[in-house]
Structure formats: structure tokens, C-alpha cells
Amino acid sequence: MAAEPGATGKAPVFVLVHSPSAGPLTWQPAAERLRALGHEAVVPDLLGVADAAPPFWAAVVDAVNGALAGLHRDQPTVLVAHSNAGLFMPLLAAQAAHPVRTCLFVDAAIPAVTGESPMVPPEMTGFLRGQLDGDRLRPWLSWWDEADVAAMFAGAPDVPGRAAIEAELPRLPLTYFEQPVPVPDGWSAEVGCGYLVFGPPYDREADEARSRGWLVRELPGQHLHQLVDPPGTAGQLVAMARALTAMPPGSTGCYN
Asked: Is 116 helix (H, G, I), strand (E, B) or coil?
């Protein structure tokens, strides 16, 4: 299936942004499926954020723009953020080196409307301190019960596999979660937003997305469902991007 061109005449590129708590392999199968459908897909590597100097959001923006360096400057961009990466979406859209028309949040945290977005709610600070091992947090998947982690991988193909996903998990400093992320004013003026929810607890974020006028779709599964169902995830991303692109600018703006 050939990709459909955007308003510039060039087909959009899907930029799949993983949470800095995880790694780029979490998006690899969906990226491969998007390419098989005729779309360009890029997965920026944010593993270096764990060793970056504060503010950590600057390293995220640099990594994403670095991954776009080889693309045509007028090629439209569909930003896709999973999990914690959703909080960086306003900065990524505002500072992108390429025109961004669409922002898709996938089982992701939703940024504040204005001002700053806290990385975690205050009540989670104690939990995170309990995950410290020396001066770094233990890898993200080790925070949860084995039964819950196993459920995230149930039914997933052997490649890349749970072992490979766990092997690349970074160990973030606690300060990563203590620093808020700024929300640039007016970043969403020409951007349409969509939310793809896999299930609880992100159903709360999906409800918030609906209240903001976003396009919301459901693909039932666990938090890493993009690994379990790459075709379904890729298909939803393409359909949502097309639906948002077909709407006049501003009609589905992020905070209308």
C-alpha cells in the first residue's frame, strides 16, 4: 500500500518516540509494519537521556531532531509518543525541525494545558525513591510484579522478545522525574491531536483527551500492546493520522 502524500506533496514520516524509561525496541515492530504499509517510520534513540545533564527534556528534543536530520525539511511529520514520552510532545512539536501537523499519544501521559507538566504526580515520589539502587533507579520493568510484566508480553512475537527489551532498559536518575517539562505557548495552533488507548490506567488519560476535543481510539491490550499487535497498532496510527490530516487546521487542535 502506497503512503498518501500530505499537504506539501510529500508523504508524512511517522516519528515513534519511546519513553526514556524504556528503549527504542518497544517501537521496532510497529515501525517495521508501517514501512511494510509504504510509510516512512523513524524511531529516535533516547537511551542517552539517562546520562544527560538536566534539563532532561532538552536531550529528548535533540535526539528526536537528530533522528530527523536526514529527511527533507518540508516532509510533514506525525509525532507519536508512548507512555511517559507524551509529556514531551509540546516541546517536540514546537521545536521540531520539520513541519508537524499531527501528534498521536499512545497509552501516554498527557501534558498540562499551559505552564509546566510534572513528570509524575507528587504521590509517586515515595514509590520512585523505593526503586533506587545506588544513585540510579532500577530498570522500569523491575518496578512491577512479575505477573503484571508477563501480561504485557503475553502473545508478543519472539522478535525482539522480552529479553531484548529488558536488556536495553536504562537506569534513570531520580532527578529525571523531579524536573517539570515546560509547555510552550501556542504550540498546538496548527496541530491535530489523537489518543490511542490500550487500557487501564490510561483510560483516565483517554477521558481527558476526549474532554480536550482530541480524536480518541481504543485498541484493547496491555501497556506494551504495540509489541503484541504491531499490525493493529500501525493500522490505527495510519487511520488516525489520515483522519486528522483531512480536517481543517485548528478544527481538532490540541486544546480547543
From this structure: strand
b/e sequence 153-180, b meaning 16+ C-beta within 10 Å: beebeeebebeebbebbbbbbeebbeee
Side-chain-side CA neighbours of residue 225 (13 Å): 20
Residue carrying the nine cell digits 504495540: 226
Summarize pLDDT for 206-249 with one digit per residue, the tens: 999 999 999 999 999 999 999 999 999 999 999 999 999 887 65
CB contact burial 231-244 (16+ within 10 A = b; e otherwise): ebbbbbbbebbeeb
Phi, psi of 59 (to 5 degrees): -65, -35
- Contact criterion met (CB below 8 Å) for 45 and 53: no
> 98-112: per-residue pLDDT in tens?
888 899 999 999 999
Look at strands 40-42 and 136-137 and give their pairing: unpaired
| C-beta atoms surrounding 47 within 10 Å | 16
∠ CA 143-205-213, rounded to 5°:
160
pLDDT the model gives residue 2: 40
Interhelix angle 28-36/230-245, nearest 10 degrees: 60
- The percent of residues in the chain predicted with pLDDT above 70, rounded, is 93
Strands (E) across 190-236 are located at: 192-197, 215-218
Q: How far apart are CA 137 and CA 251, in angstroms?
A: 42
**What phi, psi does 159 have (nearest 5°)?**
-115, 125
